[in-house]
Amino acid sequence: MIKDIYIFDDIIDSKAQKHIQDIIFNQVRWQFIPDVTKPDNKQQRPGFNYRFITNAENIYEWHTDMCRIVDAACKKINFQRKDCLQGRSFLQLPLNLKDRSIDAPHVDADVDHIVVLYYVNDSDGDTVIYENLFEGYDKVPLMKDLKEKKRVTPKAGRVVIFNGKHWHTSYQPKDNVRCVVNYNII
Amino acid sequence: MKIESLLDGKEINIIDNFLSSNLADKVYEQLSVKSFPWYFDEGTLNKKIKQSYVDEGIRAKDDDRILDYCMFNHYFYDTSQTQEKMSGFDTSNHMLDYMIKTYNLEDVILFKVKANLTTQMNNATKDNFAEPHIDIRDSEHIGLIYYVNDSDGDTFMFNNNLEIRKRITPKKNRAVVFKGNILHSAGHPLKTNRRLVINFDFKV
What we know:
- The complex is a heterodimer of chains A (about 190) and B (about 200).
- Chain A has about 190 residues and is an alpha+beta fold.
- Chain A has helices at about 15-25, 65-75; strands at about 5-10, 30-35, 45-55, 60, 85-90, 115-120, 125-135, 150, 160-165, 165-170, 180-185.
- Chain A is built from two helices and eleven strands.
- In chain A, strands 1, 2, 3, 4, 5, 6, 9 and 11 form an eight-stranded antiparallel beta sheet that branches.
- With about 200 residues, chain B is α+β, with helices and mostly antiparallel strands.
- Chain B has helices at about 20-30, 45-55, 90-100; strands at about 10-15, 40, 70-80, 110-120, 140-145, 155-160, 165-170, 175-180, 185, 195-204.
């Protein structure tokens, strides 16, 4: 499993980036979610999501288009992808939050995987990846114990690739719609 | 009775308990299920139409009350959209059937039925609103906004100089019926996490 955190700009060419934006902003049928991290999260910061693939086998519309991002990312780090555990897109809006604290740190899945996180548009709401690794849901680190390893600002065409065991999260956008495509691969 | 009867002789008419409480609950549930699909829309008006409102003097170029922002739509019936984008006819048909029966309406002809979901917007106040607009500018029609949930983010009704004529606070099972040539707009919810409405436009 990879140890470094990789960031690549223009992981796909500008024509392909626009194609992804067209799918995301003009075609995707979004689902409202009361919280972008998990349904029972106390913060209750709503957003929208769409699933391209679930449980490594249920494939929905536009998965093939999104695989272009994943394949380009894998090629960059010379990683042989065997499968996609899940692929989702999240869309967040600048909410008028009184509490601007960071979203709840989380891991996307409890099995070994790599996160391929692609930024669809220029935005704010940095992604934060912590040094701390997932050791089970009974060993969730306290916020004060998390040590920041990398911070990534959303930019259209940028991808960040990291070991899915790293706890990670993001800030809520203040100025722009924030939209990502997130694949968990093995 | 014609669809105009819902106006009750007024230009803007607010009707509470518009649907039966059972149907209002059903509509709320149908729009609230996780699987209910929403299309992203980057703003109330596209750039060309927005410019035409400025060119025609309907709105000033700079009006700091206007804070337009993206929203989410669901198309039940809208001839300006492609067939595959339209769904959820059961919900709109139940509502229409109820309206026709309860309000003794006849010859109801639709232009469109769509749901709008508006989210909070950073820095918005209760006095900001999205782009004032007329839903269909070239046809006489009656507009109806049905409030699906208790929310904030008032509906604003304007005169032709964009002075506010009326503010309507969203309330579950409330409807506002208005002459289609009245400029109107939606405020942003500040306290609730989403503002859900269903917008009907009827031919007159």
